[in-house]
Amino acid sequence: MLLRIVWFQLLAITLASTYDHQCLPYPIDSVCILDHIFYRPGDLVTFPTGYQEYHIQQPRSLKESGSKVTIFDEALYEAMHQPSRVEMEIVQMKGLTLPPTLLLGNFANNLVSSVSVSSGKNYRITYLDLESNSLTDIGFVSSLVNLEMLHLGSNNIRSIPGSALRPLTKLSYLYLSGNHFTTIPWKDLPCTLIHLDSYLGVVETVDFTNVNFPSLEYLNLRHNEFSAINVTALVQTAPNLKDVYLYNAKIDQFRLKDIKVELTAKNVTFVEVYEDYSRCFYGDRHEFVDGKCVLLAHLPVGTGKAVALSLVVLGVATLIVYLAYLVFRHMNR
């Protein structure tokens, strides 16, 4: 039995890899830049000491392949000497265990489907970016009570539980765009919000009744599925609102114009929608009309343009008839 245990231990040591990471030259002493990192649970990794911030960037030469960190866990964080800031994008990460002492975490553009936190611990993190991952459950954020910026855009989130966001009493910037939830728990969102992005989604209803956002300055709900919005309630809810993006295909165009007028009267900028920037900036067959990029052929012709076009057509027709007459005379000589 003892021999079998020893054999398994030797096998584990054999399978585990050892990596000694060194920082690239960088003018800020406290920042370590790495262009390659490879880690699996059980691997023996070492990092230089004296750094409070780690940035993992994409390799700029063919010497190294892309980085791969299957999970960011306590062992990896300890090996990095517990830095206060970690930016680790595009490393194929699937799991994340948040350390209580981390202040800033950028784990965007990975494959993270689960985030682990421990109940009863005081998490210091104020900035967390998990954009473009595979999250479906965001219950973990309720433990991160010091968050000021939270980026959850472009995940697979199908519901926003109010209990997850309610404890975040310091949250100022919240990004939820590109997900699959149909409702937003407006009453449970922190009243400290300054910036809220939830565009390119499937939100079906918007209700600002008994909601209070005294600090909200920016709101983007563009390209969702709701067909109505109470602008009066919105302005009462967010008296300091400055910029709002509300274009939705299901809202009648005449109603959108009324919304724009109402918001403009309250000194709120209604930001127009441009459906295709490339066409309108680089094409000569499109034009901005009522905040939309439309094909010139689809534009209604005004009275002046109609008269001018008619004169041109008439002139061309007259010229053709005259040329035909000259040809006819020449042939009959």
Automatic annotation (TrEMBL):
The alphabetical list of record keywords is: Leucine-rich repeat, Membrane, Repeat, Signal, Transmembrane, Transmembrane helix
Acetylation in keyword set: no
Signal peptide span: 1-18
Q: Is Membrane there in the keyword field?
A: yes
Q: What's in the GO CC field?
A: extracellular matrix; extracellular space
Name of protein: Putative leucine-rich repeat protein
What are the TM regions of this chain, as residue ranges? 306-328
| Family annotation (Pfam families) | LRR_8 (PF13855)
Highest rank taxon of the organism:
Eukaryota
Q: Which SUPFAM superfamilies match?
A: L domain-like
Q: Which PANTHER family match?
A: FISH-LIPS, ISOFORM E, SLIT RELATED LEUCINE-RICH REPEAT NEURONAL PROTEIN
Gene3D superfamilies the record matches: Ribonuclease Inhibitor
User: PROSITE patterns, per this entry?
Assistant: LRR
Q: Which InterPro entries match?
A: Dev_Immune_Receptor, Leu-rich_rpt, Leu-rich_rpt_typical-subtyp, LRR_dom_sf
